[in-house]
């Protein structure tokens, strides 16, 4: 998957995750979905999710994140960390979680931003499981896990996925901001 796909999927995954958390009242984070679109906390949270969605590709020096954070990407390559290996596994998720938590501990980022980064990171793993190659979730075990969608990078299927994901993001945001009412639209369609 390319960075456009991971960015869009990361945002959608985060929106859905937040809706589930609010729906089941797991943690009171409803402020992330209510209020102004220009709420600073909201913008930071979702931007962090998009950044987090790109972070696993630090293991690929030519990726957008690998180029931006070359001082991390180059040592990973030097130490033999291969693309879609450690950073694309459950171990990678835990390591990213622990390392990024240090940013909160040192007051470099807020906890809300940390949550966004980590939800985004997980979204990358889920999205890459739609890829033909799959991922070694149980790294260092080489067994690859994947969904049966068989999407290849930069294929028409990936472009179609980006279109569907972007459409879903727009619909969710419009619904949450009360610009549209999906229940009424569905009722209108089913009654006619």
UniProtKB/TrEMBL annotation:
Leader peptide range in chain numbering: none
UniProt keyword Cytoplasm, yes or no: no
Keywords linked to the UniProt accession: Membrane, Transmembrane, Transmembrane helix
Residue ranges crossing the lipid bilayer per the database entry: 7-24, 36-55, 160-180
Pfam families: YdjM
Domain of life assignment: Bacteria
Keyword set includes 4Fe-4S: no
InterPro entries: YdjM-like
Protein name according to UniProt: Inner membrane protein
Species this chain originates from: Halanaerobacter jeridensis
């Amino acid at each position: 998957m390319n960075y456009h796909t991971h960015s869009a999927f990361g945002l959608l995954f985060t929106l859905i995750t937040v809706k589930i958390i609010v729906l089941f009242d797991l943690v009171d984070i409803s402020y992330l979905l209510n209020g102004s679109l220009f709420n600073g906390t909201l913008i930071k949270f979702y931007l962090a999710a998009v950044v987090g969605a790109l972070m696993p590709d630090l293991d690929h020096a030519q990726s957008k994140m690998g180029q931006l954070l070359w001082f991390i990407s180059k040592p990973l390559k030097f130490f033999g960390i291969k693309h879609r290996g450690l950073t694309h596994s459950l171990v990678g998720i835990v390591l990213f979680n622990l390392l990024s938590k240090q940013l909160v501990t040192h007051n470099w980022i807020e906890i809300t931003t940390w949550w966004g980064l980590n939800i985004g990171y997980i979204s990358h793993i889920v999205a890459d499981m739609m890829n033909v190659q799959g991922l070694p979730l149980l790294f260092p075990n080489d067994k690859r896990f994947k969904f049966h969608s068989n999407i290849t990078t930069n294929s028409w299927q990936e472009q179609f996925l980006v279109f569907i994901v972007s459409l879903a993001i727009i619909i969710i945001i419009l619904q949450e901001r009360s610009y549209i009412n999906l229940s009424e639209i569905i009722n209108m369609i089913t009654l006619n």
